[in-house]
Amino acid sequence: MNRLVSSSSDSEKHIDLLRQRLGQWKRLLGLLKQESKALETHDATSLIKITEEKTKILDAIHAEESSSNARAQTSGSGKAGRSRFTEEAAKEEEPELNALLKSLYAVENECMSVNRHNQILNLRGRQRLEQVLALMRGEPAEPVTYDHLASKSPGATQLR
What we know:
disordered C terminus
């Protein structure tokens, strides 16, 4: 019986941690979307504020992960133990845990996708700036073309 109480308590703690982590990732996703708009409109002031906020959230995510890893090491379970706990709970079909995990993975994947999009926007903006600076210096400016990864490429079809 004591094992069941402990297991239930561990499960609740794990679910609370997942809720916190999901909230952090959702806040990060919101900032990444704001960053996209700021990059598209060349809003440098907003980009500075967004970068500061993103840094705080990422620091919080990393701190929570480090703390979680340290707790797992102290308890002897380590990352493998936490992963095994999550897998076992999922096998037992705890609906709340399954829903949280699916949401967390989906938000993390969306963050990665939006971040890749922002990297491309940032690269394009920098390339346009380099082209303008070259014109201002009186250097010939060749039209910038991009390959499928938005990298400069001679003769590539320009992305729009």
